[in-house]
């Protein structure tokens, strides 16, 4: 099973699981479509921080990742 750490930088997660870029964009992480944003903030902001910045529920994101077959760790 693929593992995701919500405390890892978003770009690192996508580098390890490229298929998640589309999933994250669909969940509201639209700035990731911009290559500059991806290459700068993507490596500084964790998935958990990004959810908070965008006003998204981390619990909803975790559930979505689980539905897509990922094991999620971090608190």
From TrEMBL:
Residues 4-62 form the DUF1858 domain. Transmembrane segments: none annotated. InterPro entries: DUF1858, ScdA-like_N_sf. This is DUF1858 domain-containing protein. It comes from Dolosicoccus paucivorans.
């Amino acid at each position: 099973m693929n593992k995701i750490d919500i405390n890892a930088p978003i770009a690192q997660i996508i580098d390890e699981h490229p298929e998640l870029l589309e999933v994250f964009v669909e969940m509201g992480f639209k700035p990731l479509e911009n290559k500059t944003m991806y290459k700068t903030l993507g490596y500084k902001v964790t998935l958990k921080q990004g959810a908070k910045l965008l006003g998204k529920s981390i619990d909803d994101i975790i559930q979505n990742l689980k539905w897509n077959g990922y094991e999620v760790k971090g608190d």
